[in-house]
Amino acid sequence: MNDIEIERVGMFVKVKTFLNRKAAQLAATPIIGSTLQPALGTLVQDIMEEDEDASSSISGNTELKRQLRQQVENRAFEVGAAVAAYYTLTVPNPVLREKCDYQRSDLARLRDMILYVKVAKLHEIADPIKSLLAPFGITLTDVDDLGVALSDYFADLENPRDAIGERAASGRQVERLIDQTMELIDTQLDVVMKVYAQRDPELYDYYQNARKIDQTGGGTVADEDEEITIAAGQWLNVPLSPEVMADSRLVVTNLAANTVNIEAGISSIDNGYSGFNELLNPGQQGDRTALAWGYAGPGNRLVLNNTLGAANATVRLKVYF
Predict the structure, then answer these.
(1) Regarding beta strands 249-254 and 313-320, do their DSSP bridges make them parallel or antiparallel, or are they unpaired?
(2) Whether residue 273 sits in one domain with residue 130
(3) Would the pLDDT of 163 be above 60?
(4) What is the mean pLDDT of residues 99-109?
(5) Within 13 Å of residue 2, how many CA atoms lie on the same side as its CB?
(6) Exposure pattern of 93-105 as b/e (b: 16+ CB <10 Å)?
(7) Same domain, 290 and 154
(8) What is the per-residue pLDDT across 28-66, written as a single tens digit (0 to 9) for each?
(9) Are 146 and 187 in a shared domain?
(10) For residues 171 and 80, what is the distance between their CA atoms, to the nearest angstrom?
(11) Using alpha carbons only, how large is the chain's radius of gyration in Å?
(12) Both 200 and 230 in a single domain?
């Protein structure tokens, strides 16, 4: 996916998370839970699966083809040398000798399909006389093995190209799925959610926040560049709106000239957190998801504790919902 597609899918995931976590409040509108939420979930899952296919590597297919080609080249060189010797010394035939006499470098330079055609012709010439090539160090099995190697090579010849085609098809399917998801949100979910603009403005604002497409790669920013001073040895509870979820991201930057130690967490009660400690040097950032900051559920406040006790801590707070 390109950057724009990634940003859109990020929005889809935020809306999906909103619907999941606010299902109880949205139960008054049954069509959301019965139809729109499952449809969005299916589309997001399909996008992820198709993108994985579109990003898959074809190196394994390419390596297999290289190995099979090498087998064909090696066997063709050995059998070709024997056949050329046979038509030089045993039954002189300059035309047939010319068709079978290859240097290794000649074979290596041939394009894939040309190699197949030329070696197939060599095998066609060698097969009727394979029992006569023993004086030149080639057995019946050697000629038969050339045929097998050639068949394997041809069977796999198109695999890398097929894989590239499959990746391109998956990429196009990702585009179609993203368009379908945007249409679902634009023409159905947005329309249904408008009833909450009057019924539950806070819930509607929460939806609008999830609905925004982040063009910075970080999420919607609240409390942009808010500077906070935490008194020495004191707690500070910073209100957050809307609620922060486990996958939200918080960045705390130490603006003071001294090192500070911050205990931080997301909570739904004052002075409540799971106890994440972050020692920040001057200018250093603590950049974590809400879950890493110590809270797995929705919370409406960031709890900070200046544990050094000797000096005030001044920090900048950014929250990416």
Answers:
(1) antiparallel
(2) no
(3) no
(4) 84
(5) 3
(6) eeebbebbbbeee
(7) no
(8) 899 999 999 999 989 988 887 777 655 554 444 567 778
(9) yes
(10) 44
(11) 34
(12) no
